[in-house]
Amino acid sequence: MTKDLFEKIYKNKGPLGKWAEVAEGYFVFPKLEGPISNRMKFQGKEVIIWSINDYLGLANHPEVRKVDAEAGIKYGSAYPMGARMMSGHTDLHEQLQNELADFVNKEASYLLNFGYQGMVSTIDALVSKEDVIVYDVDAHACIIDGVRLHLGKRFTYRHNDLESLEKNLQRATKVTKINGGGILIITEGVFGMRGEQGKLKEIVALKKKYNFRLFVDDAHGFGTLGKTGAGVGEEQGVQDEIDVYFATFAKAMASTGAFIAAEEEIINYLKYNLRSQMFAKSLQMQLVVGVLKRLDMLRTLPELKDKLWVIVNALQYGLRKRGFDIGTTQSCVTPVYLKGSVPEAMALVKDLRENHGIFCSIVVYPVIPKGLILLRMIPTASHTLKDVEETLVAFTAIRERLENGTYKRLSTAVAAAFGE
Ligand SMILES: Cc1ncc(COP(=O)(O)O)c(C=O)c1O
Prior knowledge:
By secondary structure, the chain is α/β, with parallel strands linked by helices. Helix content is 42%, strand content 15%. It starts with 6 loop residues before the first helix and ends with a helix. The relative contact order is 0.15.
């Protein structure tokens, strides 16, 4: 008899799902309440929030909220109906695309309903089965899923490792010589977990030696890096060499949706070949109008980015000065690495939230190696230096308790239940 498809699911909830019983509602799927800001409520208590990608503090900016609300009244949440290609196209969608392209210094851009689907779909549309994809092994899940759709060869290179990249470019070149395809390199502009920038400058230098196109997912760089906020390409002076640029509205823009930008002919091709856009409803007008407003603020209020970096620098400097390991971040993303088990990490985060009023995301095995705890902090323009100071004091206290075994003792019951 054929096995019940669900049998495996009843038995095994997966590497993260197995923690649901002790983690859900607290460590995962927590409910943050109150207006989006530096301080929100968690389980009725005020906490400093370091886990929201509202880099420029736009999510709850009064001007942004006003435009969002007015657009909601004017257009509702349904307009326009249908996919762009069929009935969901408008002047404002076009205007936003033109303004985005201008902002990131590309000939043209195209809107995506969600960054994740858009990335998957763009990868799918850019390559044919003769082509080879070469991508950073630490790439975001949406890149990995996009690559999974590819019917041809794909090679990963070690994270930000140029020697490994070059080796894989040589392998890719061999393949393309045989089957006549091209090569697509995909990297993140800023790696969202560790905060390192992709080595774009070095990657584009390889264009002299190898023939490839470069696709950059700049979810965390857009709005936060570069003189004008145009992202990691601008920051490293190689924007022109990025062949396809991607950014989401879900981070610095504090909205929903995303875009890709490239030379006009490529965007025109993608417009007719991006399955996630051809067969899905157009980005709703309220979002389009809201993003136009946010983009205007990015252009006219550089002080938002300046304020963000005051907080980033204070936090990163303060952590380093107190001897914390924040890895090799080159962006706002601020990882704090500690040593401990998953149950210890849980006890530590509980202490941080309940006794110190600090809320940050916790990343553990299997996302990072066993024995490491990663507290991932996202500074924003809405934080204050007082938030930073309080957080540094709290972090010093929790490190001491981690090192003196307090969390180990507190977590024995949890550890035993999960065989850790
Ligand atoms: C690097 C990266 N790419 C893509 C996405 C997906 O974007 P979206 O939230 O718009 O689906 C994210 C997460 O938001 C991300 O961090």
